[in-house]
Amino acid sequence: MEVLTIKKVVGKHVYGELYECDPGILMNEKDLVEIVKKAAEIGGFTLLDVKAWKINPGVSVVGIVLESHISIHTWPEFAFATVDVYTCGNKGDPVKAYKHIVHALKAKRHTLRVASRDYEDN
C-alpha cells in the first residue's frame, strides 16, 4: 500500500496603498524602522533584521521576519506609501501588522488586499 504525503506551503500576502499620510513620518527613517519593528511584534512575528534606505525625500524599509517580510516604501511629497506584509506558515496575523502601519503613518485612507500564496502538492 502506497502512503501519500501531502506537502503544503501556507502563505498570506497583505498589501496596499496608504494615502494622505503624515509626510514628516514618511521621511523619517528612524521612525519607520520603529514602526516596522512594532508591526512585527503586533503581528506576532519573529523579527530577524530591519534595513532602511533614505531615497530623498522618501524612505524604503524592509523588515525580515522568520515568517517572511514587512516592507514600507514612502513618497512624502505625495503623502503616499505602499506596504507589504508577507508571511509563510500559520504563525502570526499579517492583517494586524498592516493595520498598525496604517495607523502609525496616520493614513486618512488606504487599500488592503489579501492574496493567498499557498501551494499544495499531493
- Give average pLDDT, whole number: 93
Q: How much of the residues is beta strand, in percent? A: over 45%
Please trace the helix and strand order, writing H or E for each element: EEHHEEEEHEEE
Helix fraction bin: 10-25%
| Euclidean distance between termini CA atoms | 16 Å
List how many beta strands DSSP finds. Answer: 9
Overall structural domain count: 1
> How many DSSP H or I helices?
3
Give the overall shape, derived from the CA principal axes.
elongated
Helix/strand-derived class? alpha+beta
CATH third-level topology: S-adenosylmethionine decarboxylase
| Most strands sheet | 7 strands, antiparallel
Low-pLDDT ranges: none
CATH class label: Alpha Beta
The assigned CATH architecture is 4-Layer Sandwich
| Cα Rg | 16 Å
CATH-defined superfamily: S-adenosylmethionine decarboxylase
Q: What is shown here, in short?
A:
The chain has helices spanning 23-26, 29-43, 94-104, and strands at 7-9, 11-19, 47-55, 58-65, 68-75, 80-88, 109-110, 113-116, 119-121.
Structure overview:
The protein has a single domain (7-121), classed as 4-Layer Sandwich (S-adenosylmethionine decarboxylase). A hairpin with a 2-residue loop joins strand 4 and strand 5 (68-75). Strands 2, 3, 4, 5, 6, 7 and 8 form a seven-stranded antiparallel sheet that branches. A two-stranded antiparallel ribbon has the order 1-9. The longest helix is centred in the N-terminal third of the chain and has 15 residues, at 29-43. The protein has three helices and nine strands. By secondary structure, the protein is α+β, with helices and mostly antiparallel strands. Helix 2 runs antiparallel to helix 3.
